[in-house]
Specification:
mainly alpha; Growth Hormone, Chain: A
């Protein structure tokens, strides 16, 4: 056996071994990775609550207001795409620490924005490190948890998202009850996103690089040390010296996925599902507080509390769906989730057409239960079926496909509201979960428990 073949054989064997090995610290890593979702949820939800304050203070057009709300998502889309590639190129840990540090600085900068245009620029920049951070986090989950467990933990991101939404709702409601000025509220709420980010940064400082990435780079000495720390295994099958490894081109991940019909159809479903989830949430779910106030469900304080209860319902769904994933499979989760969204949005449209706004909270809770269920697994699917050498790129591309339409939806929905009215706009949104449901039935082939090296 030549020296050119021997290192590659050792690399493949070591990666397969670690991918199926339980790490005693794996769950701690999973919790730490998912903590980033809290930061995203806080910032995502906070702008939805303070839009009315920004509108009253700066008097922007509908397009400008939508751009202010959606600019963060545009930054996240670019951050996921570029950050995923950088994660594969420079390593998981470097991107992890850099992205959260940048977020802290930019989150604080929001609180001091002198005008809406400056705030918009900051929010676009703010989204970039967080998009990269979440993409990197999923590579950690997939590379430190064994098959079966990584699907469950990866799917639990919506629980953390709901916790962030509820926490933000409670803080906004508290500030309103305390009688703070609206300008002070929006500045404090946006700036407070830096606090959990600082805590996460401190907790991450001793986290090592993933052993699987180090192996794929031929950095065997560091991989052995990382494996010993995380798995209590020194990887004796690897040489004690580093080797040079040729890196695959960034586009190879698509060719590799297409070579396996099950992995390719799973990836296609993850992309379609993410687009549909983005469409249904950016148009209806994100604007729930605005819709409630526009149609007279309740005032500002009541709407904030009602929305908080809806996010609690979503959080329960985010916990239940992963727990049932081993029984239903990823395909069953998608079918149930998108089907439930259709029911909830249908109820909401009927309530708006018939002028029964009191039905909207129940309809919104049903829709968000279904949405939370459906959106739990697309990113998990995309990263599970991808091989380790371009897992960051594959996850980043998938998350980009989610965030790009999310930005477009948040940006344009106020204008759609103004053009066709709340009822017609809500009815049109049903198209998204319908497409997602059809994709789960006809495109997806179950791949729960699949192992990629």
């Amino acid at each position: 056996m030549t020296t050119a073949v021997m290192p590659q054989t050792a690399i493949d064997d070591a990666v397969r071994y670690l991918a199926s090995t339980y790490s005693p610290k794996g769950r701690n890593v999973g919790v730490l990775m998912l903590a980033s979702i809290f930061v995203e949820a806080w910032d995502f939800n906070s702008i939805g609550f303070v839009l009315v304050f920004l509108r009253d203070q700066f008097h922007p057009s509908a397009l400008m207001l939508g751009l202010a709300a959606g600019g963060f998502q545009a930054g996240m889309a670019l951050g996921a795409l570029v950050g995923g590639w950088l994660t594969d190129k420079f390593g998981r840990r470097l991107m992890f620490m850099t992205s959260i540090a940048l977020f802290v600085v930019l989150a604080l900068a929001q609180a001091f924005a002198p005008d809406l245009a400056t705030l918009l620029i900051i929010r676009v920049l703010l989204g970039f490190p967080l998009g990269a951070d979440i993409t990197t986090g999923y590579t950690y989950i997939m590379e430190y948890l064994p098959k079966g467990q990584r699907e469950i933990w990866g799917n639990r991101w919506q629980v953390i998202f709901a916790v962030g939404q509820v926490a933000c709702s409670a803080v906004v409601a508290l500030f309103i009850v305390c009688g703070m000025s609206h300008e002070l509220i929006w500045r404090l709420v946006l700036g407070l996103g830096a606090l959990p980010a600082v805590i996460i940064f401190v907790l991450r400082k001793d986290l090592p690089e993933t052993a699987i990435w180090l192996i794929r780079q031929g950095r065997f000495c560091e991989a052995k040390a990382a494996s010993l720390e995380m798995y209590n295994d020194s990887l004796d099958m690897l040489p004690d010296t580093d080797v040079h490894v040729t890196r695959p081109p960034v586009t190879e991940f698509l060719a590799d996925l297409r070579s396996d019909p099950i992995r390719w159809r799973a990836t296609l479903y993850s992309w379609i599902a993410f687009v549909c989830c983005a469409g249904e949430f950016s148009t209806f779910g994100f604007y729930i507080p605005v819709i409630f106030m526009m149609v007279g469900v309740s005032g500002i304080a009541g709407t904030t509390l009602t929305a908080g209860l809806i996010w609690i319902v979503a959080g329960i769904a985010g916990w239940v769906a992963p727990a049932f994933t081993p029984k239903l499979g990823h395909r069953g989760v998608g079918i149930f989730g998108f089907g439930t969204v259709i029911v909830g949005l249908g109820m909401a449209a009927v309530a708006l057409y018939t002028n029964h706004p009191y039905v909207l909270p129940l309809a919104a809770a049903i829709a968000m239960w279904g949405h939370t269920t459906a959106v739990t697994n697309p990113l998990t699917i995309a990263t599970v079926v991808s091989k380790a050498r371009y897992r960051g790129t594959a996850g980043g591309f998938s998350y980009f496909i989610n965030k790009a339409p999310l930005f477009v939806g948040i940006f344009l929905f106020p204008s759609l509201f103004a053009a066709v009215g709340q009822a017609n706009a809500t009815a049109l949104v049903i198209l998204f979960p319908l497409i997602g449901l059809l994709a789960a039935i006809f495109v997806f082939r179950e791949m729960y428990g699949i192992q990629s090296d």
